[in-house]
Design goal:
The protein is of the alpha+beta class and 286 residues long. It contains 7 helices and 14 strands.
Length: 286
């Protein structure tokens, strides 16, 4: 039986040990000190741990970069290997998070990721979406890596946050496991080594996911952020309400408001809903 886990964020601390922000990897912290989610579970207070394990906080992390070139369609993605030309990759872009792309100059409103595949028929034999080429199993693997953009005519990238599988940090006894996007995360916690996607599944029957399942609302309406117009959700709501009231006053209409049941959002993706929180990964998975 496979154990499904969600990634938890670590955090950045300043030189005095004060919490600054949640983070996925060391280079998110610049000159500050990165601490892994495992370290937080052992040392941080409950408020910090709760914040950095919250799914919305994780989705809002500015942990991606941008393939900043026309040939790459300025796509927002996770690693330079996900760009067509690695040299144009600019890490830690402040106008994209794990789900959304807020840059006005391109055609994408969502961040995208590369994928590992079995042969050249990209659309048919995709194995899994991943953070970087390192997740395809190395030089002896039968899998190859493809960047975030398929570059087919009139095509759109398809790997999004909830499609991405990651590796994990595992201690020497395989007793403690926490999901991570790279081996650099594991290096910050003594006694842990990084297992790539395929190793993690083969050795520990465990799958790590970057995000929980996204809905149409998640993809089109960034919570707490700005959409492509540059307005946040509250500003949009205010403009909408004002326009409606003005129209009603002009035409002299009277309205009756009916209370309606809110319909649940249905995801277009067929994915498992019962992904376990990664807090469980801090215990034994064997």
């Amino acid at each position: 039986m496979t154990t499904n886990l969600l990634i938890l964020a670590g955090a950045c601390f300043n030189s005095k040990g004060s919490f600054q922000k949640c983070a996925l990897k060391p280079d998110d912290c610049s000159s500050q000190v990165f601490r892994s989610s495992y370290w937080l579970s052992q040392n941080a207070d409950a408020e910090i741990m709760s914040l950095c394990s919250n799914q919305q906080s994780i989705r809002n992390l500015n942990s991606l970069g941008r393939c900043n070139g026309q040939a790459d369609r300025y796509i927002c993605t996770s690693d330079k290997t996900a760009c067509r030309f690695a040299a144009v990759f600019e890490p830690n872009a402040d106008d994209c998070n794990l789900v959304h792309d807020f840059h006005d100059g391109n055609e994408f409103t969502n961040a995208h990721f590369g994928f590992c595949y079995q042969d050249s028929r990209f659309g048919d034999d995709i194995r899994y979406c991943a953070w970087s080429f390192q997740e395809c199993g190395g030089k002896d693997s039968e899998l190859s890596w493809h960047g975030a953009d398929t570059f087919f005519a009139d095509s759109k990238p398809f790997c999004q946050c909830d499609d991405v599988r990651t590796g994990a940090c595992v201690d020497s006894n395989n007793e403690n496991v926490f999901c991570a996007v790279s081996g650099e995360v594991c290096d910050t916690s003594s006694g842990f080594k990084f297992l790539e996607v395929l190793e993690l599944e083969a050795k520990l029957s465990t799958t790590c996911n970057l995000c929980d399942m996204l809905s149409d609302f998640d993809l089109n309406n960034p919570v707490g952020g700005q959409n492509k117009s540059g307005l946040n959700a509250g500003e949009i709501a205010g403009i909408t309400v004002g326009s409606v009231l003005g129209l009603l006053l002009i035409v002299g209409m009277s309205i009756v408001i009916f209370r309606k049941k809110k319909k649940p959002v249905t995801s277009p993706k067929s994915k498992k809903n019962n992904v376990a929180l990664d807090e469980q990964s801090l215990n034994s998975v064997l």
